[in-house]
Amino acid sequence: GQSLEQPSEVTAVEGAIVQINCTYQTSGFYGLSWYQQHDGGAPTFLSYNALDGLEETGRFSSFLSRSDSYGYLLLQELQMKDSASYFCAALSGGSYIPTFGRGTSLIVHP
Amino acid sequence: DGGITQSPKYLFRKEGQNVTLSCEQNLNHDAMYWYRQDPGQGLRLIYYSQIVNDFQKGDIAEGYSVSREKKESFPLTVTSAQKNPTAFYLCASSMVGSMNTEAFFGQGTRLTVV
Rounded distance, CA B46 to CA B33, Å? Predict the structure, then answer.
């Protein structure tokens, strides 16, 4: 089967940097995506990594190491509005269907 | 504006009743998905479809049914066979195959069995 592991909760203070890790076990892995979801809302896409290395998009960056089956989402200059759940999702298999992790709840304190 | 629309936002169902959740998209995406979200469980795949008139079971398809008669629409029926249907249901769409790097989600339907 396929599985993704990420921490259940991470806390940080405003202005800090936080890293959310994701390890995966999938067959036919193609790439790793990250999504943000505020309480009761729709998940929204943040980033996608198909190749090893760091992808930067504003305050958010995402990293992938295919050899380690590992990725992370890096959030810089944290703001209160960044308090949300963050999901990693692996695209794998012949159908490229996203399989999601259980999500990490990020709590940003003043 | 292009997007994906789910309705209703809240739905109450009596035990033993079937109920259908609507999902419509105007993004011209071939692939559509239904996920179920429970607290602490993440998103679990119920069904997906990559082309009209074809769909596949996901990880938790028991007690659910779908249809894909039009590219834009992918309704989900929660049947009375689903033992624990109270959950938040999310519909998504994307391009297919290697072009699928981003899924677009609807705002979800929160189903409660009363």
Answer: 8
- Other Cβ atoms within 10 Å of B67 Cβ, number: 15
Contacts of A102 in chain B (CB under 8 A): 40-42
Residue B7 forms contact with A (CB below 8 Å): no
> By the 8 A CB rule, do A62 and A70 touch?
no
Tokens of B99: 């072009």
Question: A40 has which bridge partners?
Answer: none
Which DSSP state fits B84?
-
Q: Which of residues 21-40 of B touch A (CB under 8 A)?
A: 33, 35, 40
**pLDDT digits 0-9 by tens, B38-87:** 987 889 999 999 999 999 999 999 999 999 999 999 999 999 989 899 99
Quote the tokens at residue A47.
């980033």
